[in-house]
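During data preparation, a discrete fold description was generated, and the record follows.
___
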Amino acid sequence: MTMVSLRGLCFLLTLFLGSFFGSVFMLGPVLPLMLLSPAWYRWVTDRIVATWLTLPVVRRSASWDTYFCHIKEPLQLLLFPEGTDLTENTRARSDEFAEKNGLPKYEYVLHPRTTGFTFIVDTLRKGDNLDAVHDITVAYPQNIPQTERHLLLGLFPREIHFHVRRFSAACLPSSAEQLQRWCQERWREKEQRLCAFYRSEPRRFDQPEARVPPCKSQLRVALIKAASLLYWSAFITLCCAGLWLWTPLRLYFLLMVIFFLCQQRVTGGVELMELACHRRWSGAQVKQD
């Protein structure tokens, strides 16, 4: 019989309440700025989220990539070309794709969807907003948490290993076909790298460990973790206390929840509202010119 872990329950509750209250009380007050200037709104929210130490989930689309290029806002775009998690079912579909296209079958990775990768690279490159592509391979020496259920049961990974390679934009192939082959080649390397990792003892990537700069020392990382835990614990506690004791805060909270629910149903998400405001502003500027 599986038992819920107290540590896992606290982690998920803190993550949910921090994201929920953070959206209402940290991002909510700056939403009107979106109507005045989408670029200013993006600049402010990016810095709030950076302080938040929580990455927003953004629905990727052609308009979104072009939007960042147009407002000249630097971005770090996290892309998973596989499109899904590695499971028995997804591995079977990946093997079927490999057979149809004459590609090798993989055990530790899925074949990437190269069309989306090449489109993003091409869009960012045309917008002069691509500095480099970082190829990141992640490995777990012990357990691999697949879903929130694993976290709820307290099955946290004891170690996480990262292998990072940087490819400058100038080193990337120019044509879409060459970019697709380049992406496929990186995945062949990932398969070989992970195969060697999980067959080695102790499990580690076969290369010298990167030197940790002073700004990323173990002590500094531990202090940041402690400060983050204290901040979010206090923030959640104050939000709950404020909602319990202060009627105006409850009214604001209720209005924001209604707003988020309505805009999700009407527009499909805050990020789509932001894109719509950007298109309106861009159209107005074109008419003025």
